[in-house]
Each structure stands twice: as structure tokens, then as C-alpha cells.
Specification:
mainly alpha, three-stranded mixed sheet, 12 helices, globular
Amino acid sequence: MSNLNSSLLQNTSFVRPEYFYISGFSGIPFTKYYFIFLFFTYIIAIFGNSLVLIMILTDRSLHVPKYIGIFNLALADFGETNALIPNLMKTFLFDSQYISYEACLANMFFVFFFNNVQALTLVVLAYDRFIAIRLPLRYNAIVNNSLMSTALMAIWTFCTALVGSTVVLITRLSFCKTNVIKSYFCDYGPVYTMACNDNTINSVMAKICTVLFVYVPLIAITISYLGILLSLSKITTWAGRLKALKTCVSHLLVVGICFLPVLSTYIAALTFSLHPNARIVSTSLSSALPPMLNPIMYVLNTKEFKDLLLKMLKKRSSMRAKVLTK
């Protein structure tokens, strides 16, 4: 009878904490050095993605479908790193691991929103490469600025709706057991599992989001590259094959950077017992590294970016020379 009364009391009372406590990197040795590393990844990510955004905005020759997609990827990377790392730095600098309920939901939304935009943008860029290699003569007719812009707008709308709905569902949960989030940010899974009322719909939404934003993009990208490999096999010369494949190198590297750490963490968690600290460090790296490395991969491996960067540097040096001669 007492158990029944306790159950009824939990169902009728609704507890929404004023603050959450993010346990994050508590108990992990040498945390100070890891935060310094994250700070440098943040600076490089901001600089790199800003450079990519400025180059694409200012050079009209880059106003083509492929670079509209890369612009969207850089924008998502810029948003994700700003949603995640400044909060971590606040924890390190001010020793403040508390976050208000509303700020926690906002942090959750923006981290997952930009991360999911990033994943779906990589699918669109894979489709762009598939059409460019599979149907080169019809590429400009099939993939144009209008189609690319529409696809990217659809991604932002879809991510806003799904991630927004998923985060809003947190507001129906009651937190009467604990307010300690066992993660480095307001992570959806650790938050909804703390609830003391029914969280079935939250669990379902978490699985749906994992499928739609991890497995579906990976399958779509894999299918695109199988089609690309099939097309390459029909090119008679090795020189022609390598030339076509070279246009995909940057995208393949970025896909590897974005998905391999996440997949490795999932596989490790399924195959053996992963220590909570190891999970937190690996997942934080899988979130922090792609926004830093993506612009580097595209700038270093794309001829148009390299040419434009050299042109900008030459222009700047010539302007300095003129100033010094006056």
C-alpha cells in the first residue's frame, strides 16, 4: 500500500529543478590540459569556418551548388562549436557546473540542431559528388543553385521541427530523484533518463533521432559512394579515375572525421563496458574536432579554395608594400 501511495505521489507531483548540475569531467585526471586543448580547437574552428564563410560570400565564382553546400556545412560547424565549447570554458574558468533549466534546454537544442544539420548537409554534398561523377554532362541541369538552396532550407526546417519537438518533450518530465547530468553538456539521453515519471516517448524520440541523423546519413553516403565507384570503374584510364576521385577526397575526409568517432563510441559501448569518463572524453572529442578539422580539409584539398586564399594573401601583401613605399 505504501508503494502504491508513493507511486501516486510521484505521478501527481511535478518537479522541475531550477538548475541542473553538469558533472562533466569531474574525476578525470589532467582536466586542465584537456580544457586548454578544447580552447585551441575552438579558436581554430572559429577562424577556419569564418574564413570559409567569407571566401564563399565574397567570391562570386564560388556561388555554385557545391560551395553553397560547403557554406552550409561551415555555418553548422560554426554554430555547433559556439553552442558547445564556450559553456565548457565557462565551467573551467569560473568553476561553475550549474546551468539553469531554461539554459539547459536551449543548450541541448542548439548542440543537437547544428550537429544534425552537419550530418544531413554531408548527405547533400555526397549526392552532389554522385551526380557530378555519374552524370557529368547533365550535372548543371540537375544540380543548380535553386535545388541546392531548397535542399538546405529543407534540412534546416526539418532539423528545427524534429529537434525542437524532441527538446520540448523534456518539459513534460519530472525530476524528483537528482539534478546531476552525467555528461559534459545538457545531453538528451542523460537528462531524460533522470526523470521519475514515464519517459517512454523520450526514449522513442532519442532512437528516432539516432536513426535519422546517424544511420540514415551513413547509409545514404555509402550508397552514393558505391554509385561513384561503379561510375569510376567505367572510366577507361587510371588518370581519369584518379582525377574524378580527387574531387571527392575532401568530402570523404570530412565524413570520416564526423562519423568515425561517433561510430567507434557506439561500437565500444555495445561490445564492452565503457568507462563513463572514457565515454565523456570520446564523445566530447567527436563533437569538438569536426568543426576544427572540416574547414582545414576543404581549404587544403580544394583547388578553388587554395587559389582564392593565395590570391587574398598576395593582394594583402601588395597592399602592405604600397603602404610601406608611401
